[in-house]
Design a protein that fits this description.
mainly beta; 7-stranded mixed β-sheet; 11 strands; 0% helix
């Protein structure tokens, strides 16, 4: 009963910013932990960030820590990923996902912890 739709991707220059949005449908959204993952060409899908249902707990991949911020607005059924100081290595398709279980630091980093995924939005960072 959950659908996720990402938006906000695009082509930008290194050093600039983008804000991705993930709009969700379904009455259980506000009680679910959410995550962002990305997949670059020729590489495996990797964890980017996760957030608890309340927004009070977050987790970030080392590669984006200090540059990216995950947040959510449960009233709007939307999760955000603010991406600052973008570098070419950030180029990937970004996916949002809903967790199967409540937020945990260890579980949030694994794609197997999520059961619904969006279609993805392309982010391309040029140098």
């Amino acid at each position: 009963q959950v659908q996720l739709v990402e938006s906000g991707g695009g082509l930008v220059q290194a050093g600039t910013s983008l804000r991705l949005s993930c709009a969700a449908s379904g009455r259980t959204f506000s009680s679910d932990a959410m995550g962002w993952f990305r997949q670059a060409p020729g590489k495996e899908r990797e964890f980017v960030a996760a957030i608890s249902w309340s927004g009070g707990r977050t987790n970030y991949a080392d590669s984006v820590k200090g540059r990216f911020t995950i947040s959510r607005d449960n009233a709007l059924n939307t999760v955000y990923l603010q991406m600052n100081s973008l570098i070419p290595e950030d180029t990937a398709v970004y996916y949002c996902a809903r967790a199967k279980t409540p937020f945990s630091l260890d579980g949030s980093t694994s794609s197997t912890s999520y059961d619904y995924w969006g279609q993805g939005t392309q982010v391309t960072v040029s140098s």
